[in-house]
Amino acid sequence: MYRLGTNLGFAINRYIEPEVWSKIVDEDLNVRYVQFVADLLNAFLPEDYIKSQIRRIKESTRAHNITIASMFTSAFTRVNHLLSPDKEARKIWFDWFCRYMEIGAEFGAKSFGSHFGILTFDTYNDPDKRAFIVEEGVKAWQKLSKRAKELGYEYLIFEPMSVPREMATTVEDTQELLDRVNADCGVPLQVCLDVGHAPDPNQRDPYFWVEKLGPVSPVIHLQQTVLNKSNHSPFIPETNKDGIIKGEKLIPLLQKTGRDDCLFLLEISHREHHDTDYRVIPDLAESVRYWRQWIKE
């Protein structure tokens, strides 16, 4: 079954109140599925506050019939985390991931993810350091997958990113990380494919990524963009005119890969600018209407 929802990144610093974003998702966007982001409830926050927010979020999503289907990191948590050169920092972030997974389990989320990790330039430029830290990351994801199984998750996901030190910038590199982690996992590690991320100069066609990684992509981020960029634009007439992401091409291609169950999530980004800040909700609603031509659930 193909389902349509939204990543909650649009709500960061704009609509952080659970009652507000739940109402927007329900009444303005008319979707039932969301991907919760850590910037709305960071696991580093005091435990009493986390618990009070969990109560509010569960109450508001229940009132608006919204399913928190997936948990993910976000803009302010786009950091080195499990690939930090600092051993102590890697341990801190591993514990952070475990706590964030526990939060998601309380919401009933079935997938949990992030970028794989980010290498510093010093680590990336030294082959021995790079090999060691990536192996540390593989082991950490394996341990997370086993904790995820205990918490009731069905799979973990990671997102191919923009530059080589952010990991998985080619289809082959993405598959290699999957193979390494899944050699000893609890729940499987799969891909959160972003149709706007095609960073390698030799693999800029987003449909190539869908064709190759569709079978291991149960979650897909949707954004409108142009070739050689990742614009995270909405699906509205003025961006669709030149945009390369077309529903009539994407959906049949994914079906052809054999992927018959997928959560499609809008990941639209509006910069804080007077001309765009007030367009966030109308643009998201228009994007939902665009994708409803192909994704009915």
What does this structure look like?
With 297 residues, the protein is of the alpha/beta class. The protein has a single domain (2-291), classed as Divalent-metal-dependent TIM barrel enzymes (TIM Barrel). It is 43% helix and 13% strand. Strands 1-2-3-4-5-6-7-8 form an eight-stranded parallel barrel, surrounded by five helices. Strand 5, helix 6 (171-182) and strand 6 (189-194) form a beta-alpha-beta unit. The longest helix has 25 residues, at 127-151. It is globular. The protein starts with a strand and ends in a 6-residue tail after the last helix. The mean pLDDT is 96.
Order of strands in the sheet with the most strands? Answer: 1-2-3-4-5-6-7-8
Q: Which CATH class is shown?
A: Alpha Beta
Distance between the termini: 8 Å
| Total helical segments | 11
Using the 3D structure, state the CATH architecture. Answer: Alpha-Beta Barrel
CATH superfamily: Divalent-metal-dependent TIM barrel enzymes
**Largest sheet, described in full?**
8 strands, parallel, barrel
Query: Which fold name is given in CATH as the topology?
Result: TIM Barrel
- Give the overall form: globular
